[in-house]
Amino acid sequence: MKVTMTVNGKAMSAETEGRTLLSSFLREGLGLTGTHVGCDTTQCGACTVHVDGQPVKSCTVLAQDVAGRSVTTIEGMANKDGSLSVIQQAFQDHHGLQCGFCTPGMVMISAALLSEKPNPTEEEVRHYLKGNICRCTGYHNIVKAVMAASGADSQKLAAE
Amino acid sequence: MHDFELVKPASVAEAVAALGAEGAQALSGGQTLLPSMKQRLAAPERLVSLGDIAEMKGVCLGDRGLAVGGATPHAVVAREAKAHYPALAWLAGEIGDPSVRARGTIGGSLANNDPAACYPAAALGSGATIVTDRREIAADAFFQGLFTTALEEGEIITSVHFPIPEKAAYMKFAQPASRFALVGVFVAKFADGVRVAITGAGEDGVFRWTEAEAALGADFRPEAVEGLALSAGGMLGDMHGAPAYRANLVKVLTRRAVAAA
Fold it and tell me: Where is the signal peptide (chain A) (predicted)?
């Protein structure tokens, strides 16, 4: 069955089966490989994208179930002129990534947090990022990047 | 996972009809069902998605307490129940993580009745009524053992009605990897008595700790459960916590819940 949804502002279609996951639809159907599949078991959050502005783990959503909805992926996060968005730039500035595998999911969950709560506390950032796992254990710099993107003075965060 | 047909009804009546087919199963948020299907623990031939049924969504205050639509995601309950029933909203906001809360629903959680899920404790602890497409079921009669409920084949939870207590709190000792409750205790004080529901600990799933209810009904203070001892018999045991450990946690968390209520 052909499924159409709005991806990063454009209507896009691909063939699907009932079992086609949103992550497979994006990566294999549309060639948008910025969304990473880490665990494929709803735990790591690398595949996080937004559906109608809400964060979801795209490995645990059926493509046909969100047909017609509006999806944002990491490919849709940069500014229109191609420069990095505030959140992406903060990850670079604060060394919020090491290998980078979890980063697409980290950026998407951080964007969801900041649209829900523009000025979170450090504790709120850590709570919201609970479902996104970084195996390089780079959480301190990730949290710092999110705080910096929110406009907080990230220098005041404990440098553990 | 094996392939299947996905059906997307727009009303409860259409969903019930679609579930009448051989091998059909309801799909709510899919945060448990889809991982189970990937592991081939479930292989339905047809999934009936409840996500497009508007009449099954939302939180609203009525004369029977707080009504939560069966297909309402945890994130919406966490936000919209806050003003009316803060303990329920807090519980919803601690399930899984934000992405799971954006998809997972109260109806899906109750119908699955995982022995470590949070919502069964809220429903049993509040004395909620589970409303389906065909009848109303009291929480006390709904939960019937591990992953077992009073629901019939093809029966859908359309809403859940929560009486609002005078005071309530939920305490969860989370298993850090799964984010399910290693033990969770929901305490609710009503004008006519106290209810204490325990999840994560019982071999048969969620249960009421009636000795604590009686003690707290007479004296609603953390000290009231001090002299009680919950037997380790009937408690779950695994690599994360032995039965005696869980039995002790129940008491510790009950005290904390009473203090926080």
Answer: none
